[in-house]
């Protein structure tokens, strides 16, 4: 094999020697079939066969420090030999997810064989598929999940050659462009989700948006469940929302960004985008697993606005620890395909991920990809003002879009007070004051802390 | 809630009472958030909240007879009360996959709580999202996989209202149209995959196709790993293949169908389709998980040929027994979106699925959907002549496309002999003769049975 390569990193469990399991993956995903066939010459195999470049055994899945993989591009040096750099396996906390990996069904288990686990890196010649996301997936994430030789198989990370950067323009706005549109050059960006998720009539949405915008929110989004249903057509939402935002902008000089959920069958989605754009909207949201990464790349080609990428359904391929595609690998593909904003969950979220896993996702999204692909991490689910100090301490950045749904709408004094409390919490945190101090002068924050929990109560490491 | 509904059936594991777990799913996927919010009125909830319509506990995941779910539409009667019909839970074989379900990470486990497992059916008002596949997925397969209240969550089946039939035309050719294009009105359709999977130069492909076509094969397809790479551009493959098929058709009157893999970024995929169509090709193949179901529906809108739907990457959401989307549910969406042919695996395949699971998938594809959506099941992976009797006995149909890759290319006398052996095996089987009898007059079959195994050797129930 010569020329540019894609390197895929997998976590593999098998009752076969890891070397053998790795060769099965490489064979299935390139030149192999289950019997020798005519025309499969040594020259053909030399040129096109995927190549196992590294195997790093761990004694069991439970010993594998997930957090150590951290989403960084693999250094070239790591690919030269069979040894992974020691640093990648040192001293990370053990995430909950790594513990539970039962054998996948159908795994071949020779009598007396013991279970082996490890990291396997496989190089695929770019010439096998070219710089195409769907064709790349066929190789690195196609039939291999079904192999009986594997008792566990998870794609952790991908290292991609520059040819992908030539094909995919990626985020059109990213962090910089989003800040510019919002006229918010620094500080955390604060947002919310329209609640109730579905069923709110457009004229009530109008009132809610007015209230949130006047309270100084940066960003509002449709719930992922709200598409273009008969009871609240997108066209009606676009009309009332843009009217209200225009009015607020005229009064205050600030225009929050509203991410309209344009998710739908693709031609309809494109029409939805055009509707939002024509009305002066400044953001569209797409559920990128539901339209597919190819659908996202297609949207990017005809999109004039930032794409707020919702990750609904990610859990179906991330939550089983012994199977799937890790957020780190998936997020790279989403960024290539054009995600300007990408959901990562937030600390102490209501879903299954630990804080360590969330932080790993945020770090992955912030890591430069092929020298660019600037994407804004979106922290959401269970976010409240009390989480600001821990979030800031552990991410060390304000290049975040923090979305509070219930944490704003559930404020006892209503959504506007919810926005005030969130803003106060983050301003307090980034200027080095404690929330307790700030709350003494800020009743909205005081009440939020009483309602949703004080700093540290639920923010000091989450469920872990 | 009034009007048309979607009913989703889930297998749920939880340490909470199943009623509570079911309500969490219904809430998360419709009107709920983690705190009470303003404007979430009782009227709004009445109209838009998803509704738990049935809960059927099983004592543990291991007791759940997967095979009993069989992919049939739920009878209306089953939705009226909380009881599932007894027949749905009676006496099926226990599939391997049902046994291994470990808890998903992050599951809430109150002290002393025991694990509950069961089937849960939830009805969603169609008005929540309209007849749109991406928006439907947001509701029935969105964030719910990440819920901590669940230790296991798998979408098993979907019952869809007629509005989906109005929006999605589905298969354009199906079984009937494919048989017409092939001039093969009855009998099993026999096909193969080009091997080696990648790397074969176009001029060698030409020779291979000629040989297969002259031997009377019905169908040839590109490997899913073969897209439009520099070493064998699609345009070159289309040229040599259609030239050869034209020549064979002129000589023999029969023109095999060749499924060119057009999988790529969507605009390129559409251009690939146009290229195939303009050259007189009669089938296109798409890896439908890699372009997304929305990408498939989009292709269907602009496609003039049968769509051969490859299922690469399905394992990422099917193989973990405690998580995911079952083939039965997924195949309905694929058929709505336009799959004319759909891969199901075959008996004794080289992948993880048991024969029972494969048979369930074949049955699901053959079951009428909304009164139509005729899709041809495609049996592949490890298929050989010796499997014909068991496949026919257990499927009781010849409306199958059976693909043998290694089982044809690996024949000691070459691919043409491989085709002859496969054809003889199926003709023998459907006319009630044993393979042993037939092989006495058919050396190609005799040699295939000696090479790949005699009838029953590997075909009497697979790995189970």
From TrEMBL, chains A, B:
GO terms for molecular function: magnesium ion binding; ribulose-bisphosphate carboxylase activity. Its cofactor is Mg(2+). Gene3D superfamilies: E3 ubiquitin-protein ligase SopA (2.160.20.80), Ribulose bisphosphate carboxylase, large subunit, C-terminal domain (3.20.20.110), RuBisCO large subunit, N-terminal domain (3.30.70.150). Residues 4-59, 116-163 form the Ribulose bisphosphate carboxylase large subunit ferrodoxin-like N-terminal domain. One of its GO terms (biological process) is carbon fixation. InterPro entries: 5peptide_repeat, RuBisCO, RuBisCo_large_chain_AS, RuBisCO_lsu_C, RuBisCO_lsu_C_sf, RuBisCO_lsu_fd_N, RuBisCO_lsu_N_sf. It comes from the Bacteria. Keywords: Magnesium, Metal-binding. Residues 174-452 form the Ribulose bisphosphate carboxylase large subunit C-terminal domain. Belongs to the RuBisCO large chain family. This is Ribulose 1,5-bisphosphate carboxylase. It comes from Kribbella capetownensis.
